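Example S7 (structure tokens).
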């Protein structure tokens, strides 16, 4: 049984990202402790690159914002799943702010062993997700993490579009594969 945190990077409360993340969570919750962290509930400032977290006790950031609560949730996480809409071929900026703020604790403090990826985008381009996949692979390599897998959904733009795709089942099955 693993502790899984899913970080959901869309502000649309009933959007495609949260639907995909919820399906994954439903499957994963059968054998694991699963918690969703949505950017709709936390305001996280970007990293300012001061590097003071390198030397501060517990690698804490000097910024006393909602990231403090997210750090607490991640302290006992074994697996982190990133769920995002594609924004200009990257992840959403709110989610990127959270990811950047993880850099030092990921290296020194946390015990995260695996990552997963759930992405949605409007275009049907075959290479739509390539920039994010490149980043994902480099993060896995740098932090020496394994991937639990991914579900990538093209052609979903408006709220509800994802309901008619097979991706919700795929996300659920990816969740059930973790135990
Ligand atoms: C600022 C912005 C940038 C976007 N950029 C892209 C893009 O580069 N490629 C793409 O396929 N879709 C893009 N989209 C569309 C979203 O990825 C798509 O609507 C997705 O389903 C939204 O997920 P959500 O319902 O969870 O918010 C963009 C949407 C917004 C708001």
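Recovered sequence:
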């Amino acid at each position: 049984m693993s502790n899984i945190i899913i970080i959901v990077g869309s502000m649309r409360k009933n959007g495609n990202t949260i639907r995909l993340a919820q399906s994954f969570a439903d499957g994963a919750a059968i054998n694991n402790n699963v918690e969703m962290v949505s950017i709709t509930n936390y305001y996280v400032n970007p990293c300012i690159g001061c590097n003071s977290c390198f030397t501060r006790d517990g690698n804490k950031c000097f910024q006393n914002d909602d990231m403090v609560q997210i750090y607490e949730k991640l302290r006992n996480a074994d697996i982190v799943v990133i769920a995002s809409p594609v924004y200009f071929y990257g992840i959403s900026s709110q989610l990127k702010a959270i990811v950047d703020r993880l850099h030092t604790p990921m290296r020194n403090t946390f015990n995260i062993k695996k990552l997963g990826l759930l992405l949605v985008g409007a275009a049907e381009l075959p290479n739509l997700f390539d920039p994010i996949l490149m980043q994902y692979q480099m993060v896995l390599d740098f932090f020496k993490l394994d991937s639990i897998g991914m579900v990538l959904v093209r052609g979903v733009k408006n709220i509800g579009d994802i309901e008619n795709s097979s991706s919700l089942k795929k996300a659920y099955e990816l969740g059930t594969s973790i135990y």
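Notes on this example. Residues 130-143 form the longest helix (14 residues).
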